[in-house]
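DM from R.C. (forwarded with permission)

"hey, sorry to bug you on a friday — could you get me a structure for this? deadline for the figure draft is monday and I only need the backbone to look sensible"
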Amino acid sequence: MSGSRPAFPASAQRLKVVMAQLDFLVGDIPGNTDKVIEAAHRAWRDHQADVVVFPELCLTGYPPEDLLLRPSLDLRVQEALERLQGAGLEPTLIIGVPLRDGGLLYNAAVVLERGVITGRYFKRFPPNYQVFDEKRYFAEGRDTFLTTIRGIPVGITVCEDIWKDGPVEDCAAAGARLLLNLNASPYDTDKQARRKALLERKSRENAISIVYVNLVGGQDELVFDGGSMVYDHSGALRVEAPQFREDLYPVEFLCEHHCQPISQPLPEPLSLEAGVYQALVTGVRDYVNKNGFRSVVLGLSGGIDSAVTLAVAVDALGKERVRAVMMPFRYTSSMSLEDAEAEARALGVQYDVFSIEPMYDAFMATLAEPFQGTTPDTTEENLQARLRGVLLMSLSNKFGSLVLTTGNKSEMAVGYSTLYGDMAGGFDVLKDVPKTLVFRLARYRNTLSPVIPERVITRPPSAELAPGQKDEDSLPSYDILDQILNLYVERDFSAEAIIAEGFERKDVERVIRLVDVNEYKRRQAPIGVRITERGFGKDRRYPITNGWKSGK
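My reply, with the result:
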């Protein structure tokens, strides 16, 4: 889209808005306040900003969860606001902050002008679905809020308010010529498209330009992708900040009857694979860095899951902070050994090979008496995985490295993993990534630089815990499995509804049973990056002990 300025009357008022698409640390109110002050100074120095708009709850970070219940919250917030008032900031600031009023806590936006708080808005629709549970903490605001910036009436809303009928319409009816919307909207694979459809409709129907400012960065399992946007009063997208990139993004408006943003070139939309990959990199980088880990370590098997995990880790942290460990056993193929070494060399990480054979023999010698008269089964297979887990956790303890696990969403769903074995660790990079998408991510990463051998992508997946073992000996093909899991886990289809979609009854009933009986495993699994609309974590909370029968 052209960046040239349209013709406007000389009487049009200019307004420079800076979207502060920044990454904040939950709970670090002093550090977040420093970041707001630095951003405000930079917005004035570099962009001559009239107003700087920050994300939702930027002073506490999002989501602060039960930190909002701490007795000192109000004191810490007040100290932060006093610091901002005394910081000599030139632009008007719109800041997200929790505020108490009349004994109730609100998710608020505060207007700060030259050291004075001139207004505050209380979010009217605290969400309480998917990963959100704001009604646990926040009361509902009641009022529409407008402020005046350089003589221009500006409405303010917070995140969920724009998804509901009422707040935008009320601001427009009250005479706002521009709407500022503060957000902490987490990423999923279709989220930016849904946001755009919403903003297009809301701006067009209400004949008002909308500035949508979103948080960026990782917070536990959530990743916030930024993608801040500006739509004009006709419903046209005029400005879009890149996703997953922290920075200040200035927008100039020419305001007369409407506030018209001056168009800027729009970024190329991210492909599904590029978006997911950047979300994984962002989630790993922020989880490791914000929690103070010096490095990460992972088991490199020669399979596709660990290959993609290794690539993400290196892209997030740099090769110097990543250690890969191959832990072969008698069932490990020469192909796996060769491919694991090739991956490690291609990415330049520290690479070690430690055989688990001696440890396995020692365990089996100890267990010979109690196991006498039994036949080998999954017990012996799981022992291999648990020995690998012990090795990785020992390296973690000794060197302060975070263990990255490598299980994907398909495996987590059906329990195709070993508790205290390959599930042992601190962060599961692929936890919400279906196996079929893992293959696509591998191919995508190889378009950036070739780091995953082709046969890792094309060979049949195997845990290599038994001779000739393949994943599909125990599971339906991943093409079928992932479709069933999507319908059952993410869309809540019943067994009969899934069968009606054309899937074999035996496959559906088997998969659903595996999902249901493995809830206890998932409760003990590490957290991981959420990239779908419904991941295993805050999104999906099922009781471990229950008598619900699948069917209708």
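R.C.: lifesaver. The chain has two domains: 13-266, 274-471.
me: no worries. The first strand starts at residue 13 and ends at 21.
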